[in-house]
UniProtKB/TrEMBL annotation, chain A:
Residues 103-423 form the Solute-binding protein family domain. This is ABC transporter substrate-binding protein. It comes from the Bacteria. InterPro entries: Peptide/Ni-bd, SBP_5, SBP_5_dom, TAT_signal. The lineage of its organism: Bacteria, Pseudomonadati, Pseudomonadota, Alphaproteobacteria, Rhodobacterales. It is found in: Periplasm. PROSITE patterns: TAT (PS51318). It comes from Paracoccus aerius. Belongs to the bacterial solute-binding protein 5 family. Signal peptide: none annotated.
TrEMBL record, chain B:
Belongs to the binding-protein-dependent transport system permease family. Gene3D superfamilies: MetI-like. The lineage of its organism: Bacteria, Pseudomonadati, Pseudomonadota, Alphaproteobacteria, Rhodobacterales. It comes from Paracoccus aerius. It is a multi-pass membrane protein. InterPro entries: BPD_transp_1_N, MetI-like, MetI-like_sf. This is ABC transporter permease. It is found in: Cell membrane.
Amino acid sequence: MSKLHHRQIDDLVTRLRRGQLSRREFLARSSALLAAGAVAGIPGAAPGQALEPKSGGLLRLGLHNASQNDSLDPGTWSTSWTGASFNGGVYNNLVEIMPDGSVAGDLAESWEVEPGAKVWHFKLRPGVTFHNGKDLDAEDVRQSLEHHMKPDSTSGARAIVQQIEKIDAPSADTVVITLTEGNADLPYLLSDYHLSIYPALQGGGIDMESASGTGSFTLESFEPGIATRLTRNPNYHKNNKPYLDEVEFINIVDSSARLNALLTGEVDFIQDLDIRNVPMVERSADFAVQRIPSLRHFTFDMDTRVAPFDNPDVRLALKYALDRSDVIDKVFLGEGTQGNDNPVAPIQKFYHEMPAREHSIDKAKEHLAKAGLNSVNVDLSVAENAFFGAIDAATLYQEHAARAGININIVREAADGYWENVWLKKPFCAVDYFGRATVDWLFSTSYTTGAPWNSGWSNARFDELHQLARAETDEAKRTAYYVEMQEILRDDGNIITVAFVDWRNAVANRVGFGEVGGLMPLDNMRMCERWWIKD
Amino acid sequence: MNKISHPILSMAVSRVGLGLLSLLIVSLVIFFSVSLLPGSYASAILGQNATPEAVAAMEEKLGLNQPAIWRYFAWLGAAATGDLGTSFAGRPVMTVLGPRLLNTITLASITALIAVPLAIVLGIVCARFRGRFIDKFLSTSTLASISLPEFLVAYIVMMVFAVKLQWFPSMAGIRSSMDLGEQLYRMVLPILTLLLVILAHMVRNTRAAILSVMSSPYVEMARLQGESEGRVVMRQALPNAIGPIASVVALNLAYLISGVVVIEVVFVYPGVGQAMIDAVRNRDVPVIQACALIFAAAYIGFNLIADVISIISNPRLLHPR
């Protein structure tokens, strides 16, 4: 392929990432280049991608968030470590999220929903066995979900299972879930990594001792906070899967140590590559940087109960005053996609593509004038851990906004306790959101009136649409509702989204994988059964 | 001998008593400073699942809604009977810390076995050949390695021996499934780093202690009697410098148990320091308390031994004026 074409494609990819190009434009222009016969593979597509998976081999993963408190109780899981090794390796859910973001049956072969999305019938896949030889049946599913529903439950999935009124197991291969109110997204919710299916115990409860799941791997060894090793399950219920013989998860907290482990061949993959190390990995012939678009986004949140943020025009002025591409270039070194004051990620179902929010001092001034102000003073609370580069981003924002007569006073808060003492408490602060797999889930966690993470914003029309969309099983109607909601959030909402960021990993070229999902980290936590070793 | 050993015994007993009192104060300070830290176990563990309801349920389950003073005395009562309690995740603290403590002690012992004799020999050599090339060389290089932060020493060692030369693995992540040979092989780089860090301190102090004795009148006397310089160092100066040497060795041994967190993190060595960081991040108070007690006990214990050794080597210290 010619160098010139290569560079043109690279340039397009960069512009797409920075939000200077819409997806549609990108596709049109890049396919024009492809049609010119110029390119064999688009740069930016990970070199690990190869069509034919191979069997065998050991994959060693350098992750960083194992804890000595990790256990086999699924209610306690809170990290991608437990998610990818236990949920994605040893266990399964009723459903799984495919790399393209759609939801597919896993232990459930199929499901039907009654009108109103309140009552759901799941049919279990026949012939699935646990590692200890026991057959999977409906009671296992019921007990596994009820594990999180106990009144004193401390499970991380508590908010999800609260929507469940009851679970019935009318036959060995049928589970009926009745919700307190309709929710068309139930299958997505059931893909949550906490909701792994365990073997039921006689007399109630689940067996959390034997590490016996239905998953693609059996647990060979588990040293909490240090390492987890998995061995292939020969009786797995998916054809040919898993490809690997063994997977080892190794906890490496320090990012430089992680990079060294990759470069010296101690591991084949490292999670969360530091952006300062990107050029070092890109220069190497043996490793590649993997960027998976995610739901994760960095924002400045405003408490709309507090002046001046109670005025929608002031909020709009603040939104127009931020030069997002400047922040992405200088603070994130180009790693990130411009935000549009919409918390819904481009990879998400029901994402509504709107023209990018321009940086306009004139419009910012115009909206300030509408609010009856010449200038306005605000305190912006940040800390180094609010999101990566939050302090630098705030400093740039301060300069941008000053030109519009908005005086931002940067308040540096303590990093320790930021989420307890600043977020949701100070009226204007920087936030790092991991997102939620569905739009409904995202909205009901952070944006509907009284939602637990809502900083005071309330919009009657938004709440009304949320109720309508939730129980609606007609996709076209639902789409229309969600489009309107995203527009309301962008124009009236309480967040300024700075950027969406990728899951940024580094991976050795000997590792193979197909399309990689980004709704959750580590290929939607399913890398164990989806990845392979090429040589 | 009887006359000496008895006062030493009573001194040791009173020191142990003071040590226990220090442990009590340490546990009190740690407990209440952790409760001053913002955040809680529930919000740390639940992360982005921490809705107010889930946090409340977890705090109730762990008894965190009880007053802190009550929780402290409950913990103290159990600890006094040797029960360090269970971590907030439900595993006994000793199960959490036991294997980690073993790893830390292994690393510390191997390092100490090499470092202590080597440091004393090098210190004596420096003192004996004071002002000569070997003394200047060792003094300058140990000064340099003291001045470098330990993480930098660790990264340099890693860059040279793991990345460039590729003689040793960059990760010292030992596991119980590995055989002893592989464990030792993986521990080479952290041991080397620790040697560079602690040798300097001990060499310099040994040298200084011997030299300060060397300037006293009785050494002058020995020299006038015609003893060789080597004999003066070994027979006259060294025995009288044992006290200060013992205390610097004790300080470094305690450091090896409690202060090697940074090196553990850089080399991914599963020691007790990482366990404490993990616990502090999660606000897992029982584990933090146990770590603090272990570290404080190491300091107090080693210093006690050092004191006993200095008193045996210099009985005058038993009778302070």
